[in-house]
Amino acid sequence: MQERDRDSYLRLHGEAARPWLNRCVTCGHVGYKPEMPESLGVSVLPRYLRRYYAPQPLDDRGMCQQCAAALPEEELHSITDA
Ligand SMILES: [Zn+2]
Questions:
Q1: Angle at 45 between CA 40 and CA 46, to 5 degrees
Q2: How many angstroms separate the alpha carbon of residue 30 from the centre of ligand 1?
Q3: What is the pLDDT of residue 81?
Q4: Ligand 1 centre and the CA of 75: distance in Å?
Q5: C-alpha of residue 69 to centroid of ligand 1, in Å
Q6: Ligand 1 centroid to 71 CA: how many Å?
Q7: 66 phi and psi, to 5 degrees?
Q8: How many A from CA of 41 to the centre of ligand 1?
Q9: Residue 4 gets which letter from DSSP?
Q10: 38: CA distance to ligand 1 center in Å?
Q11: Distance 79 CA to ligand 1 centre (A)
């Protein structure tokens, strides 16, 4: 992971990148949306996001797969109901 490159890229292009990034509500891990197209016209954005991030689908609770697996639906309800 080239984090420094990624950070400087995001400083310049964060606004454009944001619609294509998924952030897990639980752990805050960021990845690109799996539905991001291969190409956005002349923009190199998808190429960079694919280089800097892994694809990260979110479930309907906004959680990444790891968090969703670690926190089953019933447990989440027992936390939010408490
Ligand atoms: Zn997560």
A1: 70
A2: 9
A3: 62
A4: 15
A5: 9
A6: 10
A7: -65, -45
A8: 31
A9: H
A10: 25
A11: 17
Model confidence pLDDT, tens digit, residues 34-70: 999 998 888 889 999 999 999 999 999 999 999 999 9
The backbone torsions φ and ψ at residue 23, rounded to the nearest 5 degrees and listed phi first, read: -115, 125
61 φ, ψ to 5°?
Answer: -95, 0
Distance 31 CA to ligand 1 centre (A): 10
Question: Where are the chain's structural domains?
Answer: 2-80
- What is residue 57's predicted lDDT score, i.e. its pLDDT? 97
How sure is the predictor about 82, in pLDDT bands with cuts at 50, 70 and 90? low
If you measure from the C-alpha of residue 70 to the centroid of ligand 1, how many angstroms do you get, rounded to a whole number? 9
Write the single-letter amino acid at 62.
Answer: G
Average pLDDT over residues 10-34: 95
What is the predicted pLDDT for the residue at 2?
72
Q: 23 with 34: CB under 8 angstroms?
A: no
Q: pTM for the full model?
A: 0.78
